[in-house]
Amino acid sequence: MLDRELWNLLDSLGLTRLTVPESRGGSGGTWHDAAALLETAAAHGIQLPLAEHDLLAGWALEASGLPPLDGLTTLGFLGSNDVARQVPWASAADQVVLVGVGGAAARLEVYAAAEFAVEPGHNLAGEPRDTVRITSRSAMTATVPQGMVEALRHRAALVRAVQASGAMGAAIGMTMTQVSDRVQFGRSLATFQAVQHRLAEAAAEAALARSATWAAVDEAVETNFRGPGLPVSVAAARSCVGQAGSAVVRAAHQLHGAIGTTREHPLHQFTVPILAWTNEYGTVAEFDALLTRAVVAAGPEVWALVTRA
To answer: Where does the record place the Acyl-CoA dehydrogenase/oxidase N-terminal domain (predicted)?
Structure first.
């Protein structure tokens, strides 16, 4: 369920169109600005379509030469029979931007809420992931190169890595507080060596994932999402985030004990989204496979691939 009050507040502050140029009614911010906002929102358990509205749909409209839109906009990928599945926040959107892929070029189609039907769905974290069925042909379309579609996929994959990194940081922080405050056998849980090791391992995984994610963000910004090494950097970030996500969720719930398994406990605001986000816009297995192919293809130059020397 969209928190309209919070969305409207952020919109009034210019944060829902953070990277949209000022000439198009946005704030003219950078991808670094937007990534910091997404990470912070995830670290506070906030679920809003900030990335979908700004970094995905907003950018797609600008890159394709289509005019900016009023109201909440999301983006999905069109499948067969005029159906797009797993479209984030479509049930709350005023319009959707759908990307149709096929042949040498792709197409962008913009539909107002009255031009599509929604079958509500949700991901593991309860965020809307809806099925969109087109009911009326769009009057606003654009043909775009396949390279733009690939850039969109990289953006989407990176968005989820940033969000998961923010949620992992919050889960680690909450767990540190729990083991420090919880007393067992007359002493704080944090004084037990096994607990210290378990938490340290999870924190190290989270730190590695965040480092890989921000390295990919840096490269994306420096190359305007066109760098030849970006697919590997994004895959490395998503692979690290996926591996770290499992470790952090497991450790956080183990160290919280029984109380952390209750539905009401706030830990779920972070651990469940981690599990959801690490399997959106590509799975851990898919990104691991991409990295494997890149390493094999590099052959004797694999060190240069890893170090970017």
So the answer is: 3-64
* Torsion from C-alpha of 251, 252, 254, 257, nearest 10 degrees: 170
Task: Give the pLDDT confidence score for residue 309 in this predicted structure.
Answer: 54
Q: How confident is the model at residue 105 (pLDDT cuts 50, 70, 90)?
A: confident
Convert the pLDDT of each residue in 137-153 to its tens digit: 888 999 999 889 999 99
* Strand pairing report for 95-100 and 83-88: unpaired
Which residue from 242, 233, 207 is spatially nearest to 290, judged by alpha carbons?
233
- CA 95 from chain centre, in angstroms, equals 20
**Longest Cα separation, the chain:** 70
Rounded to whole angstroms, how far apart are CA atoms 146 and 191? 55
pTM over 0.85: yes
Question: What are the C-alpha distances in Å from 111 to residues 7, 68, 117, 151, 210?
Answer: 21, 13, 10, 22, 36
Give the Cα separation of 254 and 175 in Å (integer): 10
> Which string of DSSP letters, residue by residue, matches 50-99?
HIIIIIIIIHHHHHTTPPP-SS-EEEEEE-GGGEEEEEETGGG-SEEEEE
pLDDT tens digits along 200-227? 999 999 999 999 999 999 999 999 999 9
Q: Say how far apart CA 167 and CA 275 lie, in whole Å.
A: 10
154, with CB counted inside 10 A (0-12, 13-18, 19+), is buried
Q: Give me the domains of the chain, ranges plus CATH numbers.
A: 148-307 (1.20.140.10)
Give the Cα separation of 135 and 282 in Å (integer): 28
Cβ atoms within 10 Å of 55's Cβ, excluding its own: 25
